[in-house]
Amino acid sequence: MDEYKSTVPLWKRIWQNSLTQMLLMSIQAFCGPAMGDAIGGLGGGGLATPQISNIASAVGYAALAVTCFMGGPITNKLGTKWALVIGSMSFPIRGSSYYCNSKFGNQWYLILGGAIGSIGAGCWYVAEAGTILTLAPSGARGKYLALWIVSRNLGQLVGGSINLSQNHEESVSNGLTADTYIPFIIIECLAFPFAFFISPLERVVRSDGTRVVMAEALSTKKEMKQIIKTLTSKLVLLSALWAVWSFFYSGSWSTYLATYFSVRARALSSLISPFFCIVGCFGLGFILDAKYLNQRRRAQFGLYIVVLLNVGVYVWSIVKQVKFNHHNPGHIDWDDEPYASSFLPYFFVQTTGPLSQSYMYWLLSSFGTSAQENVRNGAAFRCIEAVGQAIAYAMNSQTKSSPLVGFCVTFGLLGAALLPMIILVNMTPEKPLADIDTEQQQIVSDDKGGAANGYAKPRMQE
């Protein structure tokens, strides 16, 4: 480390620092996925019929799942930096397809853009997953992941601000103009130049002075074989239901808002719901980074927190929805008496959902032994996520009146995912596997150095 400081300029050390790289990844997450979520939150189909919107979403999710399935070998061959560069080029396609649909009514671009954009986004998602699983030092993984997950969810803040500015008056029902999408397209374009600032993982130096463990490069044939090996590993099989569940909730809650809230009440809900997410994600991050507990205990404690919070929110939401089924409140406005009690379940699920995702990525990073393995694990997890989102979207597109079915299915998925997750959590190593490998390599290196100088470093007896 001393040699690194003495030979590498300060600007390069800052650039290659893991925190700088995580900030750059967070900026890209805000410019890309967060803006996509913001557009979706605006009701971005524009003039498209529901059928066309459903087709575009189905095509997009299918392309995303296939790309993520093949993403591990592709990303490990290209390197995470160039996979991020290529993937970020596709982000403006989503915004431009909605703009063109709203401006010119050409729905074919909405479908084609969904396919092309999802292929590029899939490449970016896999590289992102591998990078965020690898960058953080072992004592700060929870806080690093909190920074990333918050950046991904800030799109609602932007979308809610725009939506509220246009729909703050009572009984406003006009749709969005085409010009509304221009700011989103501009922000999506910014992801591309920021991708060039990403450092190759082998050059990153973590804030605790350690370097990223890189495995030996594999041939394309061997990388392809690793797909099946990864998908059938205990890590992926035990976490698969959690991956499906952790992104399943959004469709049901979108239906809930659209069914029971006025336009301006929905806009206000989208604006204020991300704030508590920031507090919650960083709070969980500090717990997962606690130094007085070993990694397995932190994993167990984190699971209890995430599950109990989600159970509370879903019991509350199901009870509330049963009441709405018996007495439909119509479209609740923000100055109506039942607004607060009806909005709060949505407010809290916008925190418990991201908490579930942040926790899962923290847990995955505990098992990776190298950057390449983290890319493969991230690719498998993202593939399963995409399949779950496709199922959720299809199911909620058939729900015409009540989101109760979606709430119950999501709650049931949590119950089904719990036992495999308990097994996986109890398998968590007491220290990250990558750190153990690094320590073993350091012992071997020290022993060789000692032998070369006429002595051997003493080892503790087992």
Question: How would you sum up this structure in a few lines?
Answer:
The chain crosses the membrane at residues 108-127, 181-201, 231-251, 271-289, 301-319, 404-425. By secondary structure, the chain is mostly helical. The chain has a single domain (11-200, 220-432), classed as Growth Hormone, Chain: A.
Number of strands: 0
User: How many helical elements?
Assistant: 19
Topology pattern, helix = H, strand = E:
HHHHHHHHHHHHHHHHHHH
Overall CATH architecture: Up-down Bundle
What is the molecular shape?
A: globular
By CATH's scheme, which homologous superfamily applies? MFS general substrate transporter like domains
Q: What structural class results from the helix and strand content?
A: mainly alpha
What's the end-to-end separation, in Å?
30 Å
The level of helicity is: over 70%
Rounded to the nearest angstrom, the radius of gyration is 23 Å
Please give the structural blueprint.
Blueprint: H1 2-7, H2 10-16, H3 18-41, H4 50-78, H5 80-88, H6 91-104, H7 107-135, H8 141-153, H9 155-166, H10 182-195, H11 220-231, H12 234-246, H13 249-260, H14 263-288, H15 295-326, H16 339-367, H17 371-397, H18 404-426, H19 433-452
